[in-house]
Amino acid sequence: MTTADTSGGLASWNDGPAAAAIRDFVGRVTTDGSPEFVPPAERVAVFDNDGTLWCEKPMPIELGFILQRLAAMATKDPALRDRQPWKAAYEGDHQWLGEVITRHYHGDDTDLKVLMGGILQAFAGMDVEAYQQAAHGFLHQGQHPTLGRVFRDCGYQPMVELLEYLAANGFTSYIASGGDRDFMRPVTEAIYNIPAERVIGSSNALRYTPDDHGGSIVYLAEPDVFDDGPVKPVRIWSRVGRRPILAAGNSNGDLPMLRFAGGPSRPGLRLLVLHDDPEREFDYVAGSERALDEARAKGWTVVSVKDDWSAVFTD
Amino acid sequence: MTTADTSGGLASWNDGPAAAAIRDFVGRVTTDGSPEFVPPAERVAVFDNDGTLWCEKPMPIELGFILQRLAAMATKDPALRDRQPWKAAYEGDHQWLGEVITRHYHGDDTDLKVLMGGILQAFAGMDVEAYQQAAHGFLHQGQHPTLGRVFRDCGYQPMVELLEYLAANGFTSYIASGGDRDFMRPVTEAIYNIPAERVIGSSNALRYTPDDHGGSIVYLAEPDVFDDGPVKPVRIWSRVGRRPILAAGNSNGDLPMLRFAGGPSRPGLRLLVLHDDPEREFDYVAGSERALDEARAKGWTVVSVKDDWSAVFTD
Question: What is the ipTM of this complex?
Answer without folding.
Answer: 0.93
